[in-house]
């Protein structure tokens, strides 16, 4: 479960990164209690929970047998940060 306000803090942190390459590292360091997956947006077929700049945020639910994308912050145990290419 994402604590209340955590998504807002993640969005503010992502918006304050100087370069795309440091975004995932910064988020992992600032929110170590969450699972983080960083990939290209073309690797994910689901619609994002939020779009921020060049990134799509997907909520990750790893509470069951298999990890899956969810749109329910109450079930989220992590974030998939998917970087879109310039033409996405």
TrEMBL record:
This is DUF6129 domain-containing protein. Residues 27-72 form the DUF6129 domain. InterPro entries: DUF6129 (IPR046132). It comes from the Bacteria. It holds the Pfam family DUF6129.
């Amino acid at each position: 479960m994402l604590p209340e306000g955590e998504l807002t803090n993640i969005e503010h942190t992502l918006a304050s990164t100087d370069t795309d390459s440091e975004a995932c590292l910064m988020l992992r360091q600032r929110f170590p209690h969450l699972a983080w997956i960083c990939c290209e947006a073309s690797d994910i077929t689901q619609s994002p929970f939020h779009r921020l700049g060049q990134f799509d945020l997907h909520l990750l639910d790893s509470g069951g047998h298999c990890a899956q994308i969810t749109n329910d912050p109450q079930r989220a145990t992590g974030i998939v940060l998917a970087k879109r290419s310039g033409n996405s």
